[in-house]
Amino acid sequence: TQLLEQSPQFLSIQEGENLTVYCNSSSVFSSLQWYRQEPGEGPVLLVTVVTGGEVKKLKRLTFQFGDARKDSSLHITAAQPGDTGLYLCAGDETSGSRLTFGEGTQLTVNP
Amino acid sequence: GAVVSQHPSRVICKSGTSVKIECRSLDFQATTMFWYRQFPKQSLMLMATSNEGSKATYEQGVEKDKFLINHASLTLSTLTVTSAHPEDSSFYICSAPLAGGGETQYFGPGTRLLVL
C-alpha cells in the first residue's frame, strides 16, 4: 500500500497570507489529485497532475508535481476566508484505480 | 462535469438495524465505484472497490459480511451496513472514475450515518 504524507495537518492563518501544503511519498504515482472538502460534503476535485515537473495554476492556487512523481505541493497566494476547508491529496498507481489519500490539511483563514 | 449522487444524505438508525446507502453516477457509466469512510477531522479511508457484475474487493480490515456491496448496474452501487452499531457511525462517501477520463474520480456528496 502506497502512503502519502501530507503536511501540515492543521494551518490557521490570516487573510492575505500565503501558504504551502505538501504531499510526499516514497512511491511513484501515475497521477496525483488535489481535493477540497467542506464539512458534511464530498471532496471536490481541484486539479489532477500527471507529468513529472508539471505546474498547474487555478486562480490563486498553484499545484506542482515533483519531477520523480513522488511528491506534490499546493501553494495558495493571498488566502481568503473562502479558502477555508480540508485539502486532500490523493494518488493512484494506475489510471482509474483506487486512490490513496493523504491525511489532509485543515486550513482556516481568519478575516 | 460528471455527477455522482448519494442517497440518503443523512440517516439515523437504532443499533442492530441495517442501513442501505445508494451511489449513482448520473450522467456516465461506472463499471467501478469506490466506497470510503471518513471520521471527523480525518481523511478518507478506502473500504472497498465495487465492481459491476462481480464481487466487491474489500480493503484489509473491512468485514465483507458487515458491509455488503452490490453493483447491480453501470450506474448504481449500494453499500449496506448490516446490524449497525454506534461505532459504525461515520461519513460514508462513494466515488466513480469517469471511463476514458483518465485519472479523474468524481465523488458523491456523502452520507452521514448515526447509529444510536
* Overall tally of structural domains of chain A: 1
Percentage beta strand of chain B: over 45%
Element order, helices and strands of chain B? EEEEEEEEEEE
User: Average pLDDT across residues of chain B?
Assistant: 91
CATH top level of chain A is Mainly Beta
Notes on the protein architecture:
The complex is a heterodimer of chains A (111) and B (116). Chain A is an all-beta fold and 111 residues long. In chain A, 0% of the residues lie in helices and 52% in strands. Chain A has one domain (5-110): Immunoglobulin-like (Sandwich). Chain A has strands at residues 5-7, 10-14, 19-24, 31-37, 44-49, 55-58, 61-65, 71-76, 85-92, 100-101, 105-110. In chain A, strands 2, 4, 5, 9, 10 and 11 form a six-stranded mixed β-sheet that branches. Chain B has strands spanning 4-7, 10-13, 19-25, 32-38, 44-51, 57-58, 67-73, 76-81, 90-97, 105-107, 111-115. In chain B, the strands form two sheets. In chain B, strands 2, 4, 5, 6, 9, 10 and 11 form a seven-stranded mixed β-sheet that branches. A four-stranded antiparallel β-sheet of chain B has the order 1-3-8-7, with no helix packed on it. In chain B, a hairpin with a 7-residue loop joins strand 9 and strand 10. Chains A and B meet through strand 4, strand 5, strand 9 and strand 10 of A and strand 5, strand 9 and strand 10 of B.
